[in-house]
Fold each of these.
Amino acid sequence: MKRILATISFVVFISWLLGACSGTSNGDAVSRRLTVFAAVSLTDAFTEMGKAFESEHPGVIVAFNFGGSQNLRTQIEQGALADVFASGNGREMDTLAAQKLVDAGAPKSFLTNQLVIILPENNPADVVTLDDLARPGLKLVFAAEEVPAGIYARQVLDNLNGVYGADFKNQVLANVVSNEDNIRQALTKVQLGEADASIVYVSDAVAVPELQKIEIPADVNVIAEYPIAPLVESENSDLANEFIDYVLSPEGQATLKKWGFTPIVP
Amino acid sequence: MKVAWLLMSQLRKPFFQSRLSPLTEWLFVLPSLLLLALLALPILALLWRAGTDGMLSLIAQPSAIAALRLSLLTSTLSTLIAIATGTPLAFVLARRKFAGKTFLELVIDLPIVLPPSVAGIALLIAFGRQGVFGAWLNAIGITLPFTTTAVVLAQTFVSAPLFVRAARIGFAEIDHKIVEAAYVEGSNEWQLFRYLMFPLAGRAILSGAILAWTRAIGEFGATILFAGNLEGVTQTMPLAIYLGLERSLGIALALSTVLVFVSVLLLLVTRRLEDHKDGSTN
């Protein structure tokens, strides 16, 4: 008797687990799943948009995979099933287009983003101006050179060479104690006070309001354009296009603006 | 391969020398082959790709060499720390009974089953610059995160418990009669440890050390969270493989191949030690 009960409860448990996997909580509504691979900086904005999209499309579940754009690109190349890709830069999208994983004309820019310097709440290293970043002994944590945000941050340093002298970038990079896998990891290290400063997207800084910020002047800042596209191998291309339309709609753009991005559709 | 060969030879002989029907035999062989395929095919594919595409030459890249050197240095250091601190601990655990021992053993074993990412966050919260204890260290000028020391600490955290476990079992397995005889002969606890128990448990200690070393070399999650990622300072082989995947699959494959060979080698040595032990007791 005990054994039968144990078997029954095990079977119930397993079917509950399987139910969780497929995401079908209600059996009667036919549910479809839209898988969106998005740059990690979009985490808050896209999660909010996903919920709005779900409520407009009953029976649709939007599943997100947030990560460094270069990571997501690799996953898609290796055959990960995705319907939509929203990248932090054009390079990863172009790489996919070159392999015919995305139609060449498909990617649309849907927002721009800029960079800002963030400091922990208590600013332990007393960083006040941009050129303080070159002060020896500072602990900086950047996104790695492979990550779009990491590339932009180094471009900003290139631009600042024109202001503070040709060696400025090298001096700043000498203070880098870690190259993180994605921009949110760098942000977390600053948030925890483990790093003295980082260069992140304005939108990342909006997500963590308690951080101190130093603005980067417009003439040396970099404007990052994010492209979005449906994937050729998507089995839900109708839904994928509807989601992209939603991102570009006034409602979607308003959500992006709320999270610190600059909308591209006026 | 040895296992596969054994399985194949068993196909011709009935299992357990009993009279199982061919159907029953397949009931054993088929699931075994499925699991073996899952375990062996990825490694074979990895080696095959690395070999055919001539990617092994990429191992000579400066970043790959730096990762290799750092991995060897840190894993050796963390294993030495595990031996130096874990042997006394294992000895005490094997010899003494005291209140809270079960709880202590639980604390020691916990990192073995803990996800490495949890270990990394815990280390950061404890020993980070603004961490619970790290703030004190920071006050006297010691900062751990983003240093090679942090890599060693992360590796020790996840690998030392394996060593303690192996050494403790080694000490506990020593025949009580021998220990008692030594007592009768008038040896004290230090002499007992130095001249009797340490040599007798030597094999267990060595295989525990190798096990810990393998685990330390493979450490990833705790390292990337607690020590970060900087070439030559904190970027060990597993980190270089993970982050190199986006830059060039070739470097990742080459480094993976090296790690596979190192792991196989270490496993063979542990196997040897265990075989010898079985031989001596039989």
Amino acid sequence: MTEQDQKKIADVLKQTLRPVNRQPGRDLWPAMLRRLEQRPASKPWLAVLFSPASLASVPWFDWALLAALIIGLCIYPKSIPVWLYHF
Amino acid sequence: MNTHPYLRAYMAGSAVPTMMLVVVLSGFLIARYTFQIPIPIERAIVFPMALVPNIFGLWNMFYLWLRPRRHLPIGFHGALLPFILAPVGFGLATVLGFLAATSGGLVWFHQLIVPYAFLALGFSFALIAYYLVWKYIVGFFNGVLGIA
């Protein structure tokens, strides 16, 4: 390929390819801000653990077990130190 | 986050009793100084402070190891732990001198008498407590640390 051919190819390529637009067609920052605002805020883990959604997913049987546990402690509060020792 | 899953399992398991330690120590202090129950705190705290968190962590590591082999729901896995912890706790309390077996029942801290008839009931309550704690709290931490 001669130097003249190379120049011809370069000219054809320049004519074919459109010049790259270095500036975006619109302002992207407001869209970026909207995206950031849509992201859910990270909640404290305790709030997630005791959130209404997670409490609602607890089956009735587990609520009954928890109630039995609390009633047992109320009936026999002297056992609380023993419980504390075993936890 | 796929690295060191057993380390994460250990941390998730030991987090619960470590956080409970404040409650345990406060309870012991209130029992001793408010209700005058002669709890030897320096000896009684050994089990909940040194052993229970480590055993929780190891038990959660065991849960992670067991999962692909013989899967047991985490609540039931946790409910098996009192079968290990209760004998260890009773043994240590006896050796450290604040639990004695008498004809009337077990005497805790030289004052609290637990009749033998209540032992089975108390143990079943322990199973319930461990089932709930493991299912909801340790399970939650496992989810947070990406090993659920």
